[in-house]
Amino acid sequence: MTFARNGFFTKTFILMVLLLFVFSVTAEAQNKKKARARSQNYSLGARIGFDNGPSQFLIGGQGEFGRFAGTAVFAPSIDFSLGGDGTAANFDLRWYLLPLPESGLTFYGAAGPTLFFASGKGASTEVGLSLTAGMKIPMRGGNKYNFEARFGIGDIPDLRFMFGILFGI
């Protein structure tokens, strides 16, 4: 079993590089915080979760970039399946819809195309649409947690539950 042939080790290596990048960018942002206030329009982070397939544990990265049409945010993410044979790249627009007063909790909805790269025996690339319902929980310093349920339409995973953390940069 070589490194190039084993999808699990390749995914793990890519994920480790991605997480290293995310945490190095976050550390740099923490250093710049003393010099100037952080922008709340950009965030990067990591996420974990599972989908409705057997043994489908997911790990990946996520981001939020800019504002569009007032309340929409571009929120791409990538999820690696550690218990199965697939990687999903999501390109969502996220709308923050319902902030709860004094708690900081905000509910959101998102929609966007998803590319699903299946590996193994039936290697293929599928395209579908993801619809998402989620909740953002603020932390100190502009960071936030998020919980979400993703519903797939088309030839992509049907249901995913994710927990993540976003670091404001």
What does this structure look like?
Residues 1-5 and 31-39 have low confidence and may be disordered. The protein starts with 6 loop residues before the first helix and ends with a strand. The chain has one helix at residues 7-33; strands spanning 42-51, 57-68, 72-81, 86-99, 106-118, 124-138, 144-154, 159-168. It is globular. It has 169 residues and is an alpha+beta fold.
| Series of H and E elements | HEEEEEEEE
User: What is the terminal-to-terminal distance?
Assistant: 40 Å
CATH class: Mainly Beta
Tertiary shape: globular
The percentage helix is 10-25%
Specify the oligomeric state: single chain
Features:
169 residues; alpha+beta; Porin; eight-stranded antiparallel barrel; 1 helix; 8 strands; 56% strand; disordered N terminus
Summarize it.
The protein is of the alpha+beta class. Helices cover 16% and strands 56% of the residues. The chain has one helix and eight strands.
Write the layout of secondary structure elements.
Blueprint: H1 7-33, E1 42-51, E2 57-68, E3 72-81, E4 86-99, E5 106-118, E6 124-138, E7 144-154, E8 159-168
Antiparallel strand pairs: 1-2, 1-8, 2-3, 3-4, 4-5, 5-6, 6-7, 7-8
